[in-house]
Design a protein that fits this description.
335 residues; mainly alpha; Serine Threonine Protein Phosphatase 5, Tetratricopeptide repeat; 19 helices; 0% strand
Length: 335
């Protein structure tokens, strides 16, 4: 059989690596403000103040390429503007295509800024993040602690500290740091979500509580809703998990993993193979090349003695992934 599926996450997730915002923001309000800035910049495209404001909105939305465009232009127009320099360096330090040269350049900007704004906690955390990306955790912790000396309740310092600990393999201190972060900002959606992921990886019942808090903050978040359902499934609370997956599908009818995992429960936990086939087929309709769904569908058909349909499902799985050996093994059993 193939195990039920969770969403994959990046250990160095962007929102945990860079501290570019004090508090979680309302997406609609942020979008509205950015649209207004777009209009104003059409009238005055070289307005440095407006470029900085829009660039920071992009940073809040993790749109680092757009933030870099505004930051670079603002910095080019006024290289003495410290906010422009900070925006440019942050975007340079965090865009997906960044190179070691980009990170080093950003670091030099941060060091310049610290000399001129020694009490700015944001700069210390941004500088620390550049050292994190270079693998220099000693220096990273040094500048994180400088930020905490300025403000011992600074959320983003604890976020980056947690990321460092997690990368270094200390899950206990990582969790502690992230938990301290959400204590400083009780509406930090991403913090609750990431703690849910961490506790789920450890098969800890606390995971569902963190996901539920995240869902309270953003009721339409498919990440939070899926986390709730998956965590309940991990805890063998199958009826609750099925309901949670149905709730998720009310928000996003195309969330195929919610269908797949319902199929898994029906097939392997409740011995309802016909129901499992229904869910797998619906998942595959949404994601035709979903190899794991095709494989489990083949297992269902095989268990019912529907040999030709089972072979077709295994064949499809191997068509899309020739290295998916478990499907080859199951198909050979039927030949």
């Amino acid at each position: 059989m193939f195990k039920f599926l969770f969403l994959s996450i990046s250990i160095l997730a962007i929102f945990l690596l860079v501290g570019c915002g004090e508090k979680s923001t309302n997406k609609l309000t942020t979008a509205s403000k950015k649209e207004n800035l777009d209009s104003l910049l059409k009238l005055d495209p070289n307005n440095v103040e407006l470029l900085i404001k829009r660039g920071n909105k992009y940073l809040e939305s993790y749109k680092f390429y757009d933030a870099l465009s505004d930051g670079a232009k603002a910095y080019r127009l006024d290289s003495n503007n410290l906010e422009a320099r900070f925006l440019y360096a942050n975007a340079l330090n965090n865009r997906a295509e960044r190179t070691q040269v980009d990170i080093e350049n950003a670091k030099q900007h941060f060091l310049y800024l610290i000399k001129r704004q020694p009490g700015n906690k944001k700069i210390y955390v941004s500088l620390a993040s550049s050292y994190t990306q270079q693998g220099d955790y000693e220096k990273s912790f040094q500048y994180i602690n400088e930020a905490l000396r300025i403000d011992k309740k600074y959320r983003d310092a604890y976020i980056l500290k947690g990321t460092n600990y997690l990368t270094l393999g200390n899950r206990k201190l990582a969790k502690s740091s992230y938990e301290t972060a959400i204590q400083q900002d009780t509406k930090f959606f991403e913090g609750y979500l990431y703690l849910g992921y961490l506790y789920s990886e450890d098969n800890d019942p606390l995971a569902v509580e963190y996901f539920r808090t995240a869902a309270t903050l953003r009721p339409k978040s498919t990440d939070a809703l899926y986390g709730i359902a998956y965590s309940l499934q991990q805890q063998l609370k199958f009826d609750e998990a099925l309901k949670a997956y149905r709730d998720l599908l009310q928000v996003d009818q195309k969330f195929y993993l919610a269908l797949f995992n319902q199929g898994y429960i029906k097939q392997f936990e409740q011995n309802q193979v016909d129901s499992a086939i229904y869910y797998y087929r619906n998942a595959i309709d949404l994601q035709p090349k979903f190899v794991k769904g095709l494989h489990n569908l083949g297992l269902c058909y095989a268990s019912l003695g529907r040999k030709s349909e089972a072979l077709k499902a295994f064949s499809s799985a191997l068509k899309y992934n020739p290295n998916f050996e478990i499907s080859r093994i199951e198909a050979n059993k039927l030949r």
